[in-house]
Structure formats: C-alpha cells, structure tokens
TrEMBL record:
<dbReference type="GO" id="GO:0050660">
    <property type="term" value="F:flavin adenine dinucleotide binding"/>
</dbReference>
<dbReference type="GO" id="GO:0004148">
    <property type="term" value="F:dihydrolipoyl dehydrogenase (NADH) activity"/>
</dbReference>
<feature type="domain" description="Pyridine nucleotide-disulphide oxidoreductase dimerisation">
    <location>
        <begin position="348"/>
        <end position="457"/>
    </location>
</feature>
<keyword id="KW-0547">Nucleotide-binding</keyword>
<feature type="binding site">
    <location>
        <position position="115"/>
    </location>
    <ligand>
        <name>FAD</name>
    </ligand>
</feature>
<dbReference type="Pfam" id="PF02852">
    <property type="entry name" value="Pyr_redox_dim"/>
</dbReference>
<feature type="binding site">
    <location>
        <position position="273"/>
    </location>
    <ligand>
        <name>NAD(+)</name>
    </ligand>
</feature>
<dbReference type="Pfam" id="PF07992">
    <property type="entry name" value="Pyr_redox_2"/>
</dbReference>
<keyword id="KW-1015">Disulfide bond</keyword>
<dbReference type="GO" id="GO:0006103">
    <property type="term" value="P:2-oxoglutarate metabolic process"/>
</dbReference>
<feature type="binding site">
    <location>
        <begin position="181"/>
        <end position="188"/>
    </location>
    <ligand>
        <name>NAD(+)</name>
    </ligand>
</feature>
<dbReference type="InterPro" id="IPR012999">
    <property type="entry name" value="Pyr_OxRdtase_I_AS"/>
</dbReference>
<dbReference type="InterPro" id="IPR036188">
    <property type="entry name" value="FAD/NAD-bd_sf"/>
</dbReference>
<dbReference type="InterPro" id="IPR004099">
    <property type="entry name" value="Pyr_nucl-diS_OxRdtase_dimer"/>
</dbReference>
<keyword id="KW-0520">NAD</keyword>
<feature type="active site" description="Proton acceptor">
    <location>
        <position position="446"/>
    </location>
</feature>
<feature type="domain" description="FAD/NAD(P)-binding">
    <location>
        <begin position="4"/>
        <end position="329"/>
    </location>
</feature>
Length: 467
C-alpha cells in the first residue's frame, strides 16, 4: 500500500495550491520542499518581496514628489533602507508562515529536503544533514519551478552583480545600476532602485521593452518610465562585466553588431529570464522526458511520459507566472481526483507592478495581425477619466481588441494606476466569450478608473462618450 495518494515536489504557488486542492478533494497528500520555508520563489524571493519593495519605494517617492501639489507639506522623506528591508521580510514571513498553517489545516504532511523521483510511485527525500528516506505514493506532481537564467560570461555574485534575489537584498542604494533585460522583473526592480535614488539604465536586446506585450503598451510604458528617470538602451546587448574594485565596467554592444561602449555601474542586475529547475530531481534515471529547453514534457492533462508522474508551473511549458502555476495546481489535483481539471491558456492576465501598472489579457495587436484575424480596436486615455484626474494618475490608456465580425473580445491592454486589478473584468468577460458591446453596455460606477475600460469597449462597437 502506498503511503500517499499524492506527493508534490516543490511548494511554490503551483505545488502548495495543488496539495491543498488535492487534500480538499480527499487525497492523502504530502509535499517535499528543499527550502527552509514554504511558498517557493514567489513568496520567498519573487512576487511577494518584490511587491513589498515596489510599494515601499513608491510611497517614498510619492511622499517626496506629489504630496506638495495636493497641498500636503511634509519634510523631505529620509530613507531607512534597513527598516524597509525588515518590513519586506515581515511580509515574506507572514506569507510563508501562512502556507505552513494551510498545510496543517489541510492535514498535508510536509517533508523538508530535496526530492528525487526514483520512478513511478517512489520519491526519495534527502534532508540537509544528508539523511534519506523513501516515500511511496500513487501519484507524483513535479512543481520544482524555475531559476535565474545566467548571462554567458557574466558571473552573478549576488553582491555587485546580482540576480533578482540579490537585487531584493542590496545593503545600500546604488549610485548607478545597469539592468540587463527590459522584461517584467528588470523593470520592476529597476523602478524600485530608481525611486530610491539610483541612476538606472536598462539594456534590452530587442527593439522594445516588455518583450511579447502589445507594441502600443511597450512604447507608452517606456515613455512613462523615461519620464520617471530610467534610461534605455534598446537593440543592445551586454557582452561583459569587468570588476574594477567597487565599480563595474559594463560592455554594451549593438545587438546587430558594431562598436562597443562601456557603462560604469555600482550594481548590475541580470534579469534576462528564468529557466526550468530540475536539478537533482533524477528525471533521466526515472525516464521522465524533458524538451529542448529543459522543461518537463507534459500532455494536455499535465501527465509526463511516465504513468503517475505529472508536472505543473514554471517547470513546464507556458508563461512563468504564479497564477498560471496555481491554476495548473488546481487542475491537476482535480484530474487526479477524477474530475475534469482545465486551464484556459487564452485568458491568463499578465501584470507589471510598477507605477503606473501595466496589465494585459488575451491577444496583442501584433498577434492578431500575424494570425490574419480581422479585428477592431477601441482605445481610451486616462487623461479623459475624471477619477484619474482627481488622483493625478492620468498616465496611460485602455485598449480593447475585438473580432471585427463577431465583436467577441480577444484581448485588452491597460497602462494605468490599478491596471492589475482592472484587467480582471475583461478576463471574466473573455471567459464567458463576451463582446465589446457586453462590456461597453455594463454599467460602471462613477468616478472609477474602470470607466476607461467601458469607454475603450464603447470605442470598438460605437464611440466613447468622453473623448
Ligand atoms: C523577482 C520575481 C518577481 C516575480 N513577480 C511575479 C509576480 O508579480 N507575479 C507572478 O505571477 N509571477 C511573478 N514571478 C514569477 C513567479 O515567482 C513564478 O512564476 C512562480 O513562483 C512559479 O511557481 P512554481 O510553483 O512553478 O515554482 P516556484 O515558486 O519556483 O517553487 C518551486 C519550489 O520547488 C522547490 N524545489 C525545487 N527542486 C526541488 C526538489 N528537488 N525537492 C524539493 N523541493 C524542490 C524550490 O525550493 C521552490 O520552493 C516573479 C519571479 C521573480 C523571480
């Protein structure tokens, strides 16, 4: 008799959510986690600490820059970085302890140590002191997440040359910071240190920031960040970083080749992406197949090529996002409990938590064009929204894209204050196959930022009122 119905390896948002759902559905469940605390990348060194730092740095910047315009006179704010870091750690602790509580509440066994798949139904757990034990189970879910993608020739020491992990732990505000990679993580952490006083230059290989996001969004967002003080070198690549005592010489070349220039920096943040994490899992020996990018190969039901072994989250194909991992965790638990688990990959929101925020769901204009889909666009700027004016938050816009024949909404893209929350009304609409007319004829409270979503939708099937 197997000890468990399910063992989940990794307790990030994919793994812990899967375990909770499985336990709720009556499966005897255990998790294996090699980190001292539960919650994975997301809660320990990702989503949560970065959002704590984004919020604190935003408050610091706001109090120094926009209070006076609203008639609030305060002394110039002083930064106490160690207190800011302590606050961030408190936030992390509260979250990871919350996961431990949820494991107990749902009667899920927690095994601390590195999990290795010995084959169908067997997981070896090796704890820090080197002791191993073997657990038996009917099913295994691999949810081991991802790790920082290295930049060839540039060694991360997490002091001067940092990954996102080190960038969340800096002991002082750098004078100059070079961010390698203009994706979500680089722009969020670049914004944090820029608001706290660093001169930040973002070097991006592509000719736009935010890679696959809608082109309009990338352009406007870059303008906004530039206004906030960030510098950009697009179509450029970092080819080397040389340590000169406390300073760094960063060699930057045009992506297409050409003359190099050297930027001086105190800190270099390498944020060129993340790669699936499968080290020490024993996949080869267990016969579990991976693809050409090292991701665990799965079928439409998250099953690997080995019966009883499944995989979800950052370690498999798809966007590396916490909520995608969570939804896959729920889906695979439901499948294992005999239900019909499913994730709709066409409706996964993507948010950049800067100020203003950027949020998108569904297709971009570029994707629709490439697919030859005939579409209509409605756009509305926050500069014409009453609430945005009242809050001095007029940067940005909402863009709604709908099928030209059926009016079904295919995508929405928002740059603006609270975009990350606003996007969800479009996500729900899209889940129900709704049209721009459904959205535009839904009564929206006034005055709200969300009225811009309604107006953009009206711009697709009729005309907006306020522009
Ligand atoms: C700085 C930063 C900010 C981010 N911000 C956001 C955000 O705002 N929103 C968002 O959606 N996403 C964000 N992400 C991405 C998000 O963190 C990931 O998509 C998410 O954590 C993936 O979840 P997961 O469960 O697949 O894996 P992970 O969270 O990576 O968890 C995997 C866990 O498995 C454990 N593990 C690995 N191998 C073994 C083993 N052999 N045995 C036992 N345990 C093992 C690891 O220790 C880890 O705890 C951010 C990432 C970073 C780095």
């Amino acid at each position: 008799m197997a000890q468990y119905d399910l063992i989940v390896i990794g307790t990030g948002p994919g793994g812990y959510v899967c375990a909770i759902k499985a336990a709720q559905l009556g499966l005897k469940t255990a998790v294996v986690e090699k980190r001292a605390t539960l919650g994975g990348t997301c809660l320990n060194i990702g989503c949560i600490p970065s959002k704590a730092m984004l919020h604190s740095s935003e408050m610091f910047h706001e109090s120094g820059h926009s209070f006076e315009k609203m008639g609030i006179k305060v002394a110039k704010p002083k930064l106490d970085l160690s207190a800011m870091m302590a606050n961030k750690q408190e936030v992390v602790d509260a979250n990871v302890n919350g996961i431990s509580f949820l494991m107990k509440k749902n009667k899920i066994d927690v095994h601390h140590g590195t999990g290795k798949v010995l084959g169908q139904g067997k997981v070896e757990v090796t704890s820090e002191d080197g002791k191993s034990s073997t657990l038996e189970t009917k099913n295994i879910v691999i949810a081991t997440g991802s790790d920082v993608m290295p930049l060839p020739g540039v060694e991360v020491d997490e002091k001067q040359i940092v990954s996102s992990t080190g960038a969340l732990e800096l002991e002082k505000v750098p004078g100059k910071m070079v961010v390698v990679g203009g994706g979500v993580i680089g722009l969020e952490l670049g914004s944090v240190w820029s608001r706290l006083g660093a001169e930040v230059t973002v070097v991006e290989f592509m000719d736009k920031i935010l890679g696959p996001m809608d082109g309009d969004v990338s352009k406007q967002f870059q303008r906004i960040l530039k206004k906030q003080g960030l510098e950009f070198k697009l179509s450029s690549k970092v080819t080397g970083v040389e340590k000169k005592g406390k300073s760094l010489n960063v060699t930057v070349e045009p992506a297409a080749g050409g003359d190099a220039e050297v930027l001086q920096a105190d800190i270099v943040l390498v944020s060129i992406g993340r790669k699936p994490y499968t080290e020490g899992l024993g996949l080869d020996a267990a016969g579990v197949a991976t693809d050409d990018r090292g991701r665990v190969k799965i079928d439409a039901h998250y099953k690997t090529n080995v019966d009883g072994i499944y995989a979800i989250g950052d370690v498999v194909v798809g966007p590396m996002l916490a909520h995608k991992a969570e939804d896959e965790g729920v889906a695979v638990a439901e499948i294992l409990a005999g239900q019909a688990g499913h994730v709709n990959y066409d409706v996964i929101p993507n948010v950049v938590y800067t100020q203003p925020e950027v949020a998108s769901v569904g297709k971009t204009e570029e994707e629709l064009k490439a697919a030859g889909i005939n579409y209509k666009t409605g756009k509305f700027a926050f500069s014409a929204n009453g609430r945005a004016r009242a809050m001095n938050a007029t940067d940005g816009f909402v863009k709604v894209l709908a099928d030209a024949e059926t009016d079904r909404v295919l995508g929405a893209h928002i740059v603006g204050f609270g975009a990350g929350d606003m996007i969800h009304e479009v996500a729900v609409l899209m889940e129900f196959g709704g049209s721009s007319e459904d959205l535009g004829r839904t009564c929206h409270a006034h005055p709200t930022m969300s009225e811009a979503v309604k107006e953009a939708a009206m711009g697709v099937f009729a005309k907006p009122i306020h522009s």
